[in-house]
Design a protein that fits this description.
The complex is a heterodimer of chains A (about 120) and B (about 140).
Chain A (H helix, E strand, L loop, with lengths): L4 E4 L2 E4 L1 E7 L12 E7 L4 H17 L3 E7 H7 L1 H5 L2 E7 L3 H15 L11
Parallel strand pairs in A: 4-5
Antiparallel strand pairs in A: 1-2, 3-4, 3-6
Chain B lengths: L17 H9 L3 E8 L2 E6 L4 E7 L3 E2 L1 H11 L4 E4 L5 E2 L1 H9 L3 E4 H7 L11 H10 L3
Parallel strand pairs in B: 3-5, 4-6, 5-7
Antiparallel strand pairs in B: 1-2, 2-3
Classes of the chains: A alpha+beta (about 120), B alpha/beta (about 140).
Chain lengths: ~120, ~140
């Protein structure tokens, strides 16, 4: 399959999203209700949103109790979401190698969880 | 905070949308409100038009959430963010408005219901912001 390429001002940019973790499941002092994840996509056009949605579904299928929010970079800035929630980056997912990158994110989620009460399913 | 997980649409944190239903019952422009399923209602306004309304609880409702919602639930006339600590982005508001879909918190929806073009209702802050962005 060919790689999807966006051309911005003459520079080729692969379509990608970033996954962040935040909330009680990643904090030592709280009892977790769920595993909060944030997907940050580049812009609000359809390809960018569709990649975010695909990644969200992938994560929901594999992480029990996951709660995934999707926002573009500008939307994240509007909400000051990362500052307010103290979210931290778990990894970048490139559309060209979505499964491999998401597996790496899944591993990071597992490594950073402070509690082991919410099982991660290995699909 | 409200949570949603494997299911779609996002279920109510409290298992119901009583507050929304009560507010709609009290509204002079609402003739009837019928539950469809999973946070979707059919709201008939005095005057006869029917709005398909989706109410949800999520941390932050953005454009991608909107696309996902409409892909799952088909055509909606209004989307209501139920929780006081949750919100929607200006970009999502703009996209919804441009497609004739209202995106509101409950209080805003109460005001918008008085307008024929309910989807175009903006808060004072949004009016200024949209103007600044050249979105009018």
């Amino acid at each position: 399959m060919g790689r999807k390429i966006l051309l911005t001002a003459g520079v080729a940019v692969t379509l990608r999203i970033e996954v962040f973790g935040f909330g009680s499941a990643f904090a030592k002092h709280d009892k977790p209700n769920d595993i909060d994840l944030l997907i940050v996509h580049s812009v609000i056009d359809r390809p960018s949103c569709e990649l975010a949605i695909a990644c969200k579904r992938w994560l929901l299928e594999r992480i029990a109790g996951a709660d995934v929010t999707m926002l573009s970079r500008s939307e994240v800035a509007h909400f000051r979401f990362i500052e307010m929630t103290r979210a931290f980056c778990l990894g970048t997912v490139r559309k060209a190698q979505i499964d491999r990158d998401l597996m790496a994110v899944l591993n990071e989620v597992h490594c950073n969880l402070q509690f082991d009460v919410l099982p991660i399913s290995k699909k | 905070m409200a949570s949603h997980s494997l299911g779609f649409p996002w279920p109510s944190h409290y298992g119901h949308f009583d507050f929304f239903e009560r507010k709609m019952e009290q509204h002079q422009k609402v003739a009837s409100l019928v539950v469809e399923s999973g946070g979707v209602y059919r709201l008939v306004r005095v005057g006869g038009d029917t709005l398909r309304v989706f109410i949800c609880e999520c941390y932050a409702f953005g454009v991608a959430e909107y696309l996902e919602t409409t892909s799952q639930l088909d055509q909606l006339n209004a989307i209501i963010i139920n929780s006081a600590w949750c919100g929607y982005s200006p970009e999502a508001k703009r996209q919804c408005r441009d497609e004739g879909v209202g995106l509101f918190r409950i209080g805003e929806f109460m005001g918008a219901l008085n307008r024929v073009d309910y989807w175009a209702y903006l808060t004072e802050w949004e009016e200024k912001y949209f103007l600044q962005q050249g979105w009018q």
